[in-house]
């Protein structure tokens, strides 16, 4: 009985029905029938099994699950239907008006018992010692049908390695050994670090295979052989679960009705006894999970079927990579030091906070109130982020607050704000199920947003069309049962040119939705835009030499998007992290308005946020020029709202962004920084400049789980709490506000919001929050888009998407349905301006960076889990032509150098990248990939241009002198004095 645990709901919360109803829900006209004398009405197309379950009647099942299409192989769910011959499977039999069903007749019971007897005859009887004892559907079903004995004589089987026919270890010991081992026995596969595969317990129900196909879309598993020789296989001959195409999403483990696929954590810690619903702290999809516990020990994370973002699915990170929360590297005691060349000294909280407060106040007294600032985190909750920016404005009395969200997605806020009037995506994730054409530009969903990618792949298998705009051949271009109609492999830095060329085709070929434009957009601005985009210099043919995209492919892709039905655009950091990131976002918005693809299911402009709370950290006012709700700090009426709430006067002058803070630090005017949950030394561009800025500061406070790279230059370290140890909310890429619930007590003693409050109070603030719900109440009282949000509302509705207010008390899943937030949609001219970062004789290649499935951001969390087995180091992807020209072979060390710096890493030869382009990830501090990225940035938002760096690649003998010096410096900076006796 997988997922048998009833969630632990907070007071007042409505419980959800977590039962597995056997088959998926259907939408159709109502159909009424009788099941065991009980009248039930269900939608047309529903199965008899689901109808019975909804009537409170449990029909035994093994191969059925309500997240998979009916299969009808196990024959345990047979029923009798009056007027029909035989005993059909209830999972594959649709209901009919007036149908009369009997689920417990003597004939049905006899058949079920006989079927179960056959299953058990080829199954080990080690239930008492099995890890799935009490959590096994086979065990439960045997009890349900009344099976008490197996009449068959033990013989050939799949579970006894000796071949003696024994069904248990005890029986095996009593039998004489045989000359040959059992050829049908397959040993347990323990290659995957997170789960085991024990074929001896497999009943070949195919649920794991179907979950891999229907839910995940990887098609890594198959049924090999026929009849009694059938067995589940993970890939080709010689493959195991680690080396196969399996992506360790856990869908197969969740689907398995026996202990065939079982989490190693359950084997070690035992069957969980309670659970808490919470939200994943990795990417911006915002998956809901049941954290299943034994006492206060987390046993496993199971994707929650009622989670509106993930609908019961997960990826390797959210499902399995939570072990970092208990990793030995966690720092649990506050630490201080007078200078960064000294070792750390552990102290009590009061001493650390007093030390930090005195330092920061002293700097303001000496250098002025604008000499210190804060950096908020896209990994922390909305409430924690709100308090950190409040610390800057209400305690430091300046607007020196910035966030990593600006470093990745600020062009989204600017571009969509200018065109649509709001700074966020337009749809919910369910919308993709109604898309006919999907364009992905500058995003890699299978690696960065895998649960959304699975939903997208399902829609593509149903017939939707796909356009990929990316310099690299990502998995979505071509993978199992999914292939893009068009891949436009543009040269890095030419996004604006490609998007404008697509608009040129749509306009000049008369493919615009004129009715939509006239009714929903500013017509005069549209006419001006048409004059601009119709110019021959914007045609695909004129742009081909610049972009590297074949004109014919670009024209065909533009026509498909304009004429293919519901068109949705999904984009990521490959759009925003450019010098023209904001321009590209506006160009994407132009495309959506040109084709009328706004304001209904299946369409829209949808940014895929990289971290779990990128959207929320923007919403909470982390930018130096904007208060919560994207309202400019210069506006007196906006400041008045917060001045009344906070009881202080707010500085009307915008503060410093992170690059400005670092520049000012080097110049000597910026002296103190409080950095919560962010590692700017590894994640921000131009590492040398970041290091110089941090080194020049006199007080750097790092508030995090681990001694990260930024902490090398810190004077105070405040231990943080993981998402498992706190209450709060995250806001995902679809504007969905999800509850984060405390699963276990903070190992450091405090949740992060409490630490920020303690620091503020040490500086004289006088804050008195006792629960993050009170912080959310303050957010709602001061921020119009959150006006209707409270913990009570979130408990009642599960989650809401802002805006949530009087006009939309249950939130807004879809934006701009009747009109844009700005009234009319605004077409904006998108002139292509080449980046100042150019390739040339010294640096002839273009480097672009990204992420990989198993790792997350700077890797601080995932590197401290078994995920390192899949990605132990950053690798440089280089085309074989470029490698041959430079004498580089597979696996060689190479020097990667730019105008900003150099590093070394190993190379892999691949045609995923085009000649002239190289690619790497930034997950490992040993590589410090951002040492080569430059300080060029988006013209409107200062978002760094990570995606275009001119580089040279040459053979190397191993780590560079700089890497070795950096490693030595990092090791020295992490020295901790032994605790006093």
TrEMBL record:
Residues 193-224, 237-266 form the 4Fe-4S ferredoxin-type domain. Pfam families: Fer2_4 (PF13510), Fer4_7 (PF12838), Molybdop_Fe4S4 (PF04879), Molybdopterin (PF00384), Molydop_binding (PF01568), NADH-G_4Fe-4S_3 (PF10588). Residues 1-25, 952-981 are annotated as: Disordered. Residues 29-107 form the 2Fe-2S ferredoxin-type domain. Residues 107-146 form the 4Fe-4S His(Cys)3-ligated-type domain. Keywords: 2Fe-2S, 4Fe-4S, Iron, Iron-sulfur, Metal-binding, Oxidoreductase, Repeat. Its EC number is 1.17.1.9. GO terms for molecular function: formate dehydrogenase (NAD+) activity. The keyword Endoplasmic reticulum does not apply. The keyword Metal-binding applies. SUPFAM superfamilies: 2Fe-2S ferredoxin-like, 4Fe-4S ferredoxins, ADC-like, Formate dehydrogenase/DMSO reductase, domains 1-3. Belongs to the complex I 75 kDa subunit family. In the C-terminal section; belongs to the prokaryotic molybdopterin-containing oxidoreductase family. This is Formate dehydrogenase subunit alpha. The gene is fdhF.
């Amino acid at each position: 009985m997988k997922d048998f645990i009833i969630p632990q709901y907070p007071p007042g919360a409505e419980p959800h029905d977590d039962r597995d109803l056997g088959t998926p829900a259907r939408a159709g006209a109502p159909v009424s029938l009788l099941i065991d004398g009980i009248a039930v009405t269900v939608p047309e197309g529903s199965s008899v099994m689901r109808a019975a379950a909804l009537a409170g009647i449990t029909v035994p099942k093994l191969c059925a699950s309500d997240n998979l299409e009916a299969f009808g192989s196990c024959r345990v769910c047979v029923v009798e239907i009056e007027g029909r011959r035989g005993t059909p499977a209830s999972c594959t039999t649709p209901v009919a008006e007036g149908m009369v069903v009997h689920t417990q007749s003597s004939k049905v019971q006899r058949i079920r018992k006989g079927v179960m007897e056959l299953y058990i005859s080829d199954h080990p009887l080690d239930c008492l010692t099995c890890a799935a004892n009490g959590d096994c559907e086979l065990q439960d079903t045997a009890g349900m049908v009344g099976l008490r004995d197996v009449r068959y004589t033990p013989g050939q089987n799949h579970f006894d390695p000796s071949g003696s026919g024994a069904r248990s270890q005890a029986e095996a010991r009593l039998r004489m050994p045989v000359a040959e081992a059992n050829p049908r026995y397959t040993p347990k596969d323990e290659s995957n670090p997170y789960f085991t595969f024990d074929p001896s317990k497999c009943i070949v129900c195919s649920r794991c295979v179907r979950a891999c196909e229907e839910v995940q879309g990887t098609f890594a598993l198959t049924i090999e052989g026929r009849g009694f020789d059938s067995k589940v296989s993970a890939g080709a001959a010689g493959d195991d679960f680690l080396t196969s195409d399996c992506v360790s999403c856990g869908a197969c483990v969740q689907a398995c009705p026996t202990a065939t696929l079982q989490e190693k954590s359950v084997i070690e810690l035992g069957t969980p006894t309670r659970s808490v619903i919470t939200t994943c702290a990795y990417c911006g999809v915002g998956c809901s999970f049941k954290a299943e516990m034994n006492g206060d020990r987390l046993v496993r994370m199971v994707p929650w079927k009622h989670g509106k973002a993930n609908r019961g699915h997960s990826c390797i990170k959210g499902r399995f990579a939570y072990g970092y929360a208990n990793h030995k590297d966690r720092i649990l005691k506050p630490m201080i030091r007078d200078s960064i060349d000294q070792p750390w000294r552990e102290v009590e909280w009061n001493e650390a906070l007093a030390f930090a407060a005195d330092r920061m106040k002293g700097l303001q007294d000496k250098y002025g109130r604008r000499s210190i600032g804060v950096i908020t985190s896209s990994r922390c909750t909305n409430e924690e982020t709100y308090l950190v920016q409040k610390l800057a404005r209400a305690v430091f009395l300046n607007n020196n607050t910035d966030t990593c969200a600006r470093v990745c997605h600020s062009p989204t806020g600017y571009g969509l704000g200018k065109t649509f009037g709001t700074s966020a995506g337009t749809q919910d994730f369910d919308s993709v199920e109604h898309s006919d054409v999907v364009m992905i530009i500058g995003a890699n969903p299978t690696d960065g947003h895998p649960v959304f990618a699975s939903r997208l792949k399902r829609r593509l298998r149903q017939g939707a069309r796909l356009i990929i705009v990316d310099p690299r051949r990502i998995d979505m271009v071509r993978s199992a049962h999914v292939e893009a109609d068009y891949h436009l492999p543009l040269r890095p830095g030419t996004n604006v040119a490609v998007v404008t060329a697509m608009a040129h085709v749509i306009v000049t070929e008369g493919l615009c939705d004129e009715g939509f434009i006239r009714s929903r957009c500013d017509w005069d601005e549209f006419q001006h835009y048409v004059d601009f985009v119709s110019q021959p210099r914007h045609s695909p043919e004129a742009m081909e030499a610049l972009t590297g995209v074949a004109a014919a492919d670009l024209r065909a892709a533009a026509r498909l998007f304009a004429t293919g039905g519901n068109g949705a655009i999904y984009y990521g950091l490959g759009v925003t992290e450019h010098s023209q990131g904001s321009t590209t976002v506006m160009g994407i918005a132009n495309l959506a308005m040109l084709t009328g693809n706004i304001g209904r299911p299946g369409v829209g402009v949808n940014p895929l946020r990289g971290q779990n709370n990128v959207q929320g950290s923007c919403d909470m006012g982390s930018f130096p020029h904007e208060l919560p709700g994207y309202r400019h700090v210069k506006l007196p009426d906006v400041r008045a709202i917060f001045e009344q709430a906070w009881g202080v006067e707010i500085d009307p002058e915008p503060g410093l962004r992170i690059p400005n803070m670092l520049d000012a630090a080097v110049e000597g005017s910026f002296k103190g920084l409080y950095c919560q949950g962010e590692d700017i030394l590894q994640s921000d561009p131009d590492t040398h400049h970041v290091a110089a800025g941090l080194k020049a500061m006199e007080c750097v406070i790092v508030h995090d789980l681990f001694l990260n790279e930024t902490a090398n230059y810190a004077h105070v370290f405040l231990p943080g709490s993981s998402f498992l140890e706190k209450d709060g909310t995250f806001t995902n890429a679809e504007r969905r506000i999800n509850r984060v619930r405390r699963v276990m007590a903070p190992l450091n003693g405090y949740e992060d919001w409490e630490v920020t409050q303690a620091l503020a109070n040490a500086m004289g603030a006088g804050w008195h929050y006792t629960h993050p719900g009170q912080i959310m109440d303050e957010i709602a009282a001061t921020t119009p888009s959150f006006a209707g949000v409270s913990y009570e509302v979130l408990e009642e509705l599960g989650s809401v998407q802002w805006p949530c207010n009087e006009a939309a008390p249950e939130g807004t899943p879809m934006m701009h349905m009747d009109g844009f937030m700005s009234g009319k949609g605004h077409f904006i001219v998108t002139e292509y301006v080449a980046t100042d970062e150019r390739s040339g004789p010294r640096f002839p290649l273009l480097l672009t960076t990204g992420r990989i499935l198993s790792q997350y951001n700077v890797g601080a969390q995932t590197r401290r889990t078994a995920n390192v087995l899949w990605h132990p180091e950053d690798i440089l992807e280089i085309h074989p032509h470029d490698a041959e020209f430079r004498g580089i072979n597979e696996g060689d060390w190479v020097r990667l150098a730019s105008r900003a710096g150099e590093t070394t890493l190993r190379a892999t030869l691949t045609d995923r990248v085009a000649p002239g382009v190289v690619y790497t990830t930034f997950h490992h501090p040993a590589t410090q990939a951002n040492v080569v990225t430059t300080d060029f940035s988006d013209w409107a938002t200062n978002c760094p241009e990570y995606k275009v760096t001119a580089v040279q690649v040459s053979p190397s003998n191993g780590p560079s002198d700089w890497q070795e010096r950096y490693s030595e410096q990092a090791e020295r900076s992490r020295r901790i004095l032994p605790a006093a006796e």
